[in-house]
Amino acid sequence: MKRVGETIPLRRLRRAELPVDTVELARYLIGKVVVHDTDDGRLSGRIVETEAYPVGDSAGHAFRGETRRNASLFLGHGYAYVYFTYGSSFMLNVTSEAAGVGAGVLLRALEPIEGIDLMQSSRGGAALLDLARGPGRLAQAMRIDFKQNGLDLCAAGPLWLAANQQKTGAIGESVRIGLTRNVDQRLRFYERGNPYVSGPKRLRE
């Protein structure tokens, strides 16, 4: 069994492996790894919680069409879409659907793997369980900001998606968290029983 902080073999995901469907991609990404190779070292974590924002979703940033702010959402599947919200937090999304069709998957929580000391430095010494539990914390721990917006997550580069050999646990689903539109859709996915999943207890079991 992998121990926290232990280096694990990673294989960069190919774009052809990513489902070209937002909801399918949100499920598929559970158990995969996001990697950020920084000047200070590698940061990585298993994705344990996602939310889908499919085509036509009024809660999604692409609902009103393409703008300069959300242009990365329309690049095709497998790119990073980063936005800033609440005046304090960046959010990391993986784009989905075909080029020209705006949709994405929000990464909500990670189980830290590599660069935990760097993550703790970025997060002000936060406890291990809270390093990347929640999308704003995730981006801060992984040192994500607008510089990563639009990066190809399946190409050689500093930010990428990977597969690993660790078995993914049972996947749960629930309504999304913190929304005022389309609040009843069950478009949030998570690894059941994983302590790094965010949200209230009833949405983690």
Structure at a glance:
With 205 residues, the chain is mostly beta strands. The chain has helices at 22-28, 116-122, 135-141; strands spanning 11-12, 33-38, 41-53, 80-85, 89-95, 104-114, 159-163, 171-174, 188-191.
What are the key terms here?
3-methyladenine DNA Glycosylase, Chain A, mainly beta, 3 helices, 205 residues, nine-stranded antiparallel sheet, globular
Structural notes for this entry:
The protein has 205 residues and is mainly beta. It contains three helices and nine strands, in the order E-H-E-E-E-E-E-H-H-E-E-E. Strands 1, 2, 3, 4, 5, 6, 7, 8 and 9 form a nine-stranded antiparallel sheet that branches. Strand 2 and strand 3 form a beta hairpin.
